[in-house]
Amino acid sequence: MPSAAEQLASNFNFSSFAKAKELRQRVLFTLGALIVCRLGTYIPMPGIDPTALASILNQQKGGILDVFNVLAGGAVGRMAIFALGIMPYISASIIIQLMTTVFPELEALKKEGEAGRKTINQYTRYGTVGLAALQALGIAIGLENMGRVVIDPGFFFRFTTIITLTSGTVLLMWVGEQITSRGVGNGISLIIFAGIVARFPTTIGQIFESGRTGAVPLPEIVIIIGGLIGLILLIVFMERAQRRLLVQYPKRQVGNKMFGGESSHLPLKINVSGVIPPIFASSILLIPATIANFNAANTPGWLQTMMTYLAPGRPVYESFYALMIIFFTFFYTSIIFNPEETADNLKKYGGFIPGIRPGKKTAEYIDFVLTRITVIGAIYLTFVCLVPDFARQEIQLTLGGTSILIMVSVTMDTVAQIQSHLIAQQYEGLIKKSKLRGSRR
Fold it and tell me: What is the C-alpha to C-alpha distance for residues 29 and 275, in angstroms, rounded to an integer?
């Protein structure tokens, strides 16, 4: 029998959305903030010759700049004020999460609730500024080494580049936090999502243009489109997949009445790590090629050989890419999910897994189950990220598996939040009706 929430969800229509005034305001605020983010990707950074930059970037396709260009919504290719995008904030968040497992002081802050969370968020902001400044300095030096890209190289250009790009990242971070608190969905994820979606029509146009000019046969075009649809369906299925552990709560007697004795589930997602493993793996693998391209004239012979074997589409690159995705999947899952903490929380509230002793044995069992499903999650992420790479050898696509994964995941999360707001609004309507009926009586 469907639950009350499922019954409400089945009755959703445009009229129920129109009645949700607060949700409508949140959606409009989110759209306005994302438009501002997109406008920033077209404001050029001072001191750059755009023609020379475009010419050089076309010669460096396949490097890490392509990865960041997709995630930044094309801002890297235009070297706009939002060229760094939101990646420094994501990197700082991951570093802080790693540090919480090493430093007891940060781990204690994490357990302090809202106050501790605010302090950790502040540390993350400081880390974002530092990482953005370092990356901006690296970009300034790299642009100067490219030749005619920088109009007037020197200290002033480096200083203005650091200020401009760091300010752009801080502005994006602030906008993302505003979307999270006043809009719909996770602001940081939606900013990345908007940049990727903005390039999606270009990708579709490339596919049809290749079919029109005869560069790719029509049957292959049909297979590519069908494979893209199948890949999206696979991502939807796997992102919703869970392994539910039965949790039982004991009965307790209060006076002459018996309470408790209910059962619940502990949901464990198949893909706990999200999209972090492919982003990290692709970034690390493409660093040598990018460094070499910045100063191609003085590239050592051993680095040129490495670049040859680590080019996207080569068997060595794809093998290392798969291994690193699997490694980071297990590594990041172990950071963001602590079986011992989960077992302690279950024990604190009187819950237990049937047949498993509370405490250490429960933690070991959860870790055992989590390890098994993480194997499936790692294989799934590897498949999703490698299949589009093989397709890109036939047709020049601007979107890879990571981009498609981000698009589908963020869409699902945002739709789920909209449904939650609508359900809350309908519940409020039912409560008001019941109060009116009670007052008439």
Answer: 26
